[in-house]
Design a protein that fits this description.
With 142 residues, this protein is of the alpha/beta class. It contains five helices and five strands. It binds 1,3,4-trihydroxy-5-OXO-cyclohexanecarboxylic acid.
Amino acid sequence: MKVLVIHGPNLNMLGKREPEIYGTFSLDDINNRLMALASELNVELSAMQTNSEAEIIDAIQGEKYDVLIINPAAYTHTSIAIRDAISSVGKPVIEVHISNIHKREEFRRKSYIAEVATGQISGLGADSYLLALRASKNILSQ
Ligand code: DQA
């Protein structure tokens, strides 16, 4: 049972980046919490961050996971290529966002990913990822 977490562009800046929106926790803090929960749930977890759309697509196409948790960050609102990669692979995908994209600027309300994702969790800070991991476990157990 393998879960892959992809953190998209600028999420390496968490903690320093607009803390009033994204909080003061770092990407390492999120990954450490995810790893701890994964061992509790007996799930094999790997996490990666990249600022590159091409690397996100290559990772989605890789066969190394059963469920994908992805925060596509700004690519959420622009990337038909990531959306197509998700549709091509046909695996369960949970889209996560730290902030609530539906109550921010108009351009953030459109997600190209939501239409091909299994579900979306948005606005719960670092907990968005942890809830997605719990949901992944349930999806895999069904
Ligand atoms: C984000 C929301 C996006 O609109 C933004 O571009 C991000 C982060 C979030 O996690 O809240 O980089 O995906």
